[in-house]
Predict the 3D structure of the following.
Amino acid sequence: MRIGLLGLGTVGAGTYRVLARNQSLIQARAGRQIVITQVAVRDLARAAAIAGTDVALTTDPFSVVTDPDIDVVVEVIGGTTLAKALVLRAIEHGKHVVTANKALLAEHGSEIFAAAEARGVAVAYEGAVAVSIPIIKALRESLVANHIEWLAGIINGTSNFILTEMRSKGLSFDAALADAQRLGYAEADPSFDVDGIDAAHKLCLLAANAFGSTLQFQQIDIQGITELQVADMAYAEQLGYRIKLLGIAKRSDAGLELRVHPALVPVEHLMASVEGSMNAVMVKSDAAGITLHYGAGAGSEETASAVIADLVDLARTFGADAHQRVPHLAFQSQALHALPVLPMTELVGSYYLRFDLAEGDGDGVVAHALEQLVQTGVEVQSHALLLHHQDRARRAFTILTRPTRLAKLMQAVNRLQQLPHELGAPTVLRVEQLT
C-alpha cells in the first residue's frame, strides 16, 4: 500500500520514523507492506535530513494527491484551508485519506465524509482525538452494541498541564502558561488550547460517534481556562475537588448537551488524577457501564501510533467493498441526524461560587447572601468562609449548590450583587460528579 505523506513536521516525522522502525511488525499485522513513497514538504533540505533518499520529495502537495500510484494520502499539515483543498482533491482522485486534523473534520467533516462516501473511499482520523487513546475505535467498534448515555473527557493536554501547574505549584495562569510554552506543551499563540476550541473540535467528533448526530461544532458551548485564578484551585482542594477542563457530551430525551468548560471534580475520582499533559475519556453506556480510556494527549510518535493504526485498518480492508468498512461516524450515513442541542442556561447541575469578601465583611454578609439564594429557589448544599490562600487577613465566601438550572443561578447571583454589602462578581464553576 503506497502512501503519500503531506507534511514532515512533528507528526509527519514521527509517522515516518515509526513506520520505518517497525516495518516488519506492522506488515505482519497488516498483511501487506505499507510504504511511504512520496512526501510533500516546504523545506526540502530539512526533509532530506529526515527521510534520506528513500522517498520522493516535493514542494507541490497537489502532485502527491493526484498521483495515480498513491493509494492513501496522510494529511498532517494542519489548518483548514489548504488541508481541506488537498483532502477533497485526494478523495476526488480515489485516494483513501488518513488525517490527524481535528479542526478540519469538526468544521468541514460533513462535506468531506459525504465526498468520500460518494467516491467509495475512507477517511480515517484516530489521531485527531486524544492521540494515543484509541477512543474513536472504541466508540465505532468496541462499544457498538451500547446505548451511550454520556462521555466526558480531559482532551486538551496543554490546558491540563497548566491547571496541574496552578494546583501543584501555586502558579498563576500566566506563569503556568509560560512554563507550558517553555517546555513545548503550548504554542506561541495558545488560544486554541486555553480558550477551549481544540477540546471542542475533539468533542464534536466524539459526540457524533457516540450518538449518531451530525457534526455540530457551532452548537458547542465553550469556556476556556484563561479566567481561572490560583485561588480557586486552592479553595477547590480544600473543599475536596480539583478543577479540570472537561469536554462533556450527554444525550437525553430533550436533546444533546455539548459543552467544554472548567469544572470541579471530586478529588477521589479517577479523572481528578489525570495530571500534566495526559488525556482521559470516560464513557457511560448501558451494557458496558463506565469505561475509562487514558493516555498521552500529544506527542510526535504518540500521534504517529494512531495514524499508523488507521493505515493498518485500511490495509486490512484494501480493495473491500465500501459498505463493508466501519462508517466514518460509527453510524451509517443515512442514520445520522441533527439532534437539538440544549442551551447551557437551561441545563441543571451543581455549582461552585466564590466571592471575595471585603475587609470587615463576615457572618452578616454571609447570612444575607444565603437568604437571598433561598428566596430565588437555589438550594445550598454547603458553604464556607475560607482564609485567602495567600493573604491571611482576607477571606473568601464559597458556596456549593444543589442541582439547579443555570438561568436560575445567574438570577440569584444578580440579586446577590445588589446587596447593601456589595459582593463582587463571583467565580462560577460547574461541579461534575461523573457517575
The first helix runs from residue 10 to 21. The domain at 2-131+300-335 is CATH 3.40.50.720 (Rossmann fold). The mean pLDDT is 93.
